[in-house]
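Recap quiz, item 2
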Amino acid sequence: MQTIYFDNNATTKVAEEVLEEMKPFFCELYGNPSSMHTFGGQTGQRIRHAREQVAALLGCDPSEIIFTSGGTESDNAAIKGVLAAYPGRRKIITTRVEHPAVLTACRELENHGYTIVELGVDKTGQIDLTELEKNLDDNTVLVTIMYANNETGVIFPIDRITGMVAEKNIVFHTDAVQAVGKIPLNLAKSNIDLLSLSGHKLHAPKGIGVLYTRKGTRIAPFIVGGHQEAGRRAGTENVPAIIGLGKACELAAKNIETENKKVKFLRDKLENALLKNSPDSRLNGDKKNRLPNTTNISFEFIEGEAILLMLDKFGICASSGSACTSGSLEPSHVLRAMGVPFTAAHGSIRFSLSRYNTEQEVDYTIEKLPGIINRLRQLSPFVAK
Ligand code: PLP
């Protein structure tokens, strides 16, 4: 059976061009970039090139790129590194819809005497900027707000947010794991101090990421040891993954416009047909301000997990907004924060597309899904028969 992969916000296929670029760095060019000999020096040279490729996609200087092991490490490093650099201030502002890499890190800090303000969102998933403004004060050390939400694709107004934050001389971090490679960014023209990205969301391998650190931003080293990454993140570099990330960024920079158009066309076709053909369905999120590849749809009165299992029988991979943890079904914290009713939050499905999806795959899903919904509704105890 053919696999139809609509779960690209979870992870993406490594691009063939990326894999080809990485291959020599396992058994041929395996030198340590820190070595004095020419053999090792070659890999150091290639890391410098990869750093330039990443910087070109982000519109920043290569010296502002710190390679990490992924989005989670970058988020933790940004938050904890800033707190260590500003020991006198004790308040962090974030949102209720962040990825757990940010939310859990912040909530843990409450146990260490920090005040965490989690801004709420409206029913489209957008934050209230007046609430943000009210909370910015002399005790605030960091504002960390994601660029785009992983579940709904909603994009936050980062330019307006950073304008307000910069005025108060507060450090601003954004988790841009879902945004990088999907929408154009230009950090040189922004007030973002720190930005996290993750390779496996943009067709590079898993286990590689970046913390962009704007020149002059105070942040303590987060892994100490050798001198790698300017002493901020020590440890021998993951050379093949760094080379792969560089190539993935080069591809993204080259093709972002055409791919955006194609992916958005497919996403819209899928979304419109599913909403039209499935009664009691609704879109979650801000229809206008969102990533071109993501749609999050609730099918009321049925379980997202049941839909996923039936889609899986047809080889269709998507993801559900609810997570089955320790025997109890917890609806997504993002949808709950948006005030999505319980019965709809439970039946939410996220489809996230990539440049590798085709119109045929979309048509096949449009053909299969309404039948699945019908069948599950017939079994649902919540639907009047
Ligand atoms: N932040 C966001 C918004 C994400 O979507 C993810 C992954 O799903 C992460 C952080 C974590 O990234 P990684 O898997 O590279 O640790």
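The first helix runs from residue 16 to 22.
The chain has a mean pLDDT of 95.
End of item.
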